[in-house]
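Researcher: Final request for today, and then I'll write up notes for the group meeting. The sequence and the SMILES for flavin mononucleotide follow.
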Amino acid sequence: MKNKYPNLSKPIKIGNIVARHRIFSAPTGLMGYGAGGHMTIDNRAYYEYKASGGCAVVSLGECIVHGESGSSHNLQPALDDITLLPSLTCLVNDIKRHGALANIELSHGGKYGGLVSVGGELKEGKVAYGPSEEILPTGEHIFEMPKTMIHELVRYYGKAAIMAKRAGFDMVNVHAAHGWLFSQFLSPAQNHRSDEYGGCFENRARFFLETLDEVRRCLGPGFPIEVRMNGDDFVEGGMHLDDYVALAKLIEDKVDLINVSCGSHEVEELFVRTHPSMFYEHGCNVYLAAEIKKHVKVPVSCVGGLNDPAQCEEIIASGKADIIEMGRALMADPFLPKKIFSGREDEITPCLRCFECLGQSVVAMGIRCAVNPIIGNEVEHRIQYPPVDHPKKVLIAGGGPGGMQAALEADAREHQVILCEKTGTLGGALKFAKAIDFKQDLYKFSQSLQIKLEKTSVDVRYHTEVTPKLVTELSPDVVIIATGATPIIPKIPGIDGSNVFPAASIEEMAPDAMGENIVILGGGLVGCETAIHLGRHGKKVTIVEMRDEAAADCNCFHKTAVNMELKKYVTVLTGTKAECITENGLSGRDSAGQPVFVAADMVICAAGMRSDNTLESALADMDVEVYTIGDAVKPNKVTQAVFDGYYCAKYL
Ligand SMILES: Cc1cc2nc3c(=O)[nH]c(=O)nc-3n(C[C@H](O)[C@H](O)[C@H](O)COP(=O)(O)O)c2cc1C
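Model: Predicted protein-flavin mononucleotide complex:
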């Protein structure tokens, strides 16, 4: 079989070790470590799961070199606590037993260390030190870091590196990106010191360079040191690409790999560039790595929204970078490397860049993934269930994401599965994504489920609605109801006019054939994303939303990304109740009771969804095990449908 990815699959030397290919798992930290930042069984299983999918290197995210001053959330592993060593050592073994190299990120939050506004559930902030004194927008006071503390932290980086080596890590990654300690010192916008650690570029870089020397001294020659740095802060007065090229040249003799990221963790609008939202192109930050690579001899890796094997191969082949680091793509599908290198790319579950992972870490201090129900449940996944003794006949109603996921899992458990879809195509609520450029990964996800289904023995029946009659005829042991939801049509005059369309129907409408002035009735996620799509096609779009904010129903990071796009393309009228639609537009009333009129050629109704679970009551009297999943229980996001489908089938 011809290797389609000769560059991506090529081993690469980093310091004195060799990585087996060019796909690395970018550092991802967790919010849900154990008390004191100890690795729990769940944490270990999360990293092991990544390693098991075949990536060359698995990186543990931010570990803080000095817990008292540097923690940017209150459960972070602090490497100055020796009691962490045993669980870190176990974690390293978990990673390495799958042939991956283990990497650990050494970090310090700098001015954000220990702040109430940053540190998870902290009730009282600690005294925080940054390069210079300042008052943050939160009102928190930052003190200028004394020189004695700088010298002490340099030593702590060295000690942390020694701890990492003792635990068996193959590499360390010194974090100088994303607005944490070294980013702050490097930035002319933040560092106003008058001593040898502030002022000119060399002075601002001094702390970082002294640290790299100390880490090298502690680890010895050849031990691989990666640096993660920005290629652009994207902040006025901050460091930009030219400055980072200069920095790369300054450090290249001290390190073995430069990973080029960008932006900041603590500035909302930059966060969605550091972790590129679905509104950015895949690989939107690669140009930063590519420029830096031109100026240094040491290997350079790139990161940000990369999940397409052909694009990754091209990046390496064309010399833009030597290594691809992937964060979320390897959560959506840790087996991406194995699939790429065995000709099964069509089975890759793509990352949607929907921020369910990071959103969940804020809400529940846990982790999850919209398209991979195993993330956050890896221990459960590792349990080897005994084979099913008596395979059941499983009838699934509905071929949306929940129904397809249930079919795949039930088939994997060797049940006999019939999947009935009342239309002529699978995909359910995901079908609309095909028409929207920033939703292509969602569309691909739907396709990947279908491709996987084709490789199973699931009996897919199109144009077949599950009814009590069909259940009687087929006599299944189990019925899984995955019939989804239907749009809510608000009862306002004019709603049945010929100029009113449900949001889902935009799948069938070419923007060119639509009117120029469009009102979207409902500013939930569906309404907002539809509005952005049409706004990007040059339409004049107005959202009319009753609640006080748009996209109220989505996670905080995606909300930021959505609002940034809305600002560019859409007029949003919140607190506004629609009262009537005519052929000229929509009338309503704002929160002060004042009349509002929006002229429009077309009204798109995105007023929410209602569960379609009529089958549940229709089957109530029948002698069959029934489970209802996904939107048929309660309209929700794809995350819930996938999760329900997977776990419902797993326990049959
Ligand atoms: C859940 C999660 C946790 C992360 N934790 C860290 C971290 O601890 N340190 C770090 O440098 N980057 C962290 N990142 C950022 C990633 O390493 C990566 O740079 C970013 O997600 C962009 O890459 P992607 O588009 O492939 O996800 C995290 C990302 C995610 C999704």
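Model: The pocket of flavin mononucleotide is lined by residues 26-29, 61-62, 105, 175, 178, 228, 261, 275-276, 303-306, 326-329, 357-358, 361 (CB under 6 Å). The chain has 21 helices and 28 strands.
Researcher: Thanks, that's everything.
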